[in-house]
Structures are given as C-alpha cells and as structure tokens.
Predict the structure.
Amino acid sequence: MIDRRLLFRLAFWAALAFAVIMAVLPQPPHTPVDQFGDKFEHMLAFGTLSVLAVLGYAETPLLRIGERLSFLGAMIELVQSIPALRRDCDIRDWFADTLMVVLVLLVTALARRFRAPGAALSSRSTRPNR
C-alpha cells in the first residue's frame, strides 16, 4: 500500500512545479479562476501548497514551512521583474502569498494543539487505576 505522506509529497511537488511555471510564463493560459483576480490566484496557489506541505512534511516545523513558502513567493515576484517575461512584479502578490501561508499554518497549529490534549486524555484513561 502506498504511504499517504508520499502521495501528499508528490502532490506538493507537482503543485509547486505548476505554480512556478504558471508564474513565469510570459503569457500563461487562461484558467477558470482568472475571473476572481490575481490575488485570489496567488492565495489559492499558496494555500494549496501550504496544505500539501503540512500533510506531506508533517515532521517539519510549521515555521520552516512558512519561511520556505514565503521565500518562494518572493522569488517568484523577483523573477517576474525580468523584462523579457513581460510580467508584473507586485509586492502585494507576495503579501497575499504569505498571508495565505500564515493562515493555513495558524489553522494547522490550532488543530494540532486542540487535538493533542484529547490524545493525552485517551492514553491516560487506558492506564490501570491505582
């Protein structure tokens, strides 16, 4: 049976490749989400990457995941500033990327925090009484 974590990791790398390629194409193809605007596309991409990273790399500290994904967003904006690509470099896009990463990681941290006490209580209830 295939490990779920491996599937999430493969999905993460596929999504990352797709996001980077779409970000650096001089004329990316139109997609159904274009109607919602550029910031929505950024937030959707980085929200998806964040969820896949958390699921695929559960042992990695959330702060490190956030740092790396935010850095990726900044590098994408830097590459988009290359004139030959005819793309717009906008720091607000990087802010949108980072905001979504932070939101996903905050929800993940809260879920992990509230899940942990329940797990601790269930392990205590299985101990024999003294």
Remarks:
- Confidence is low (pLDDT under 50) at residues 120-127.
- The helical segments are 4-24, 38-56, 62-80, 91-125.
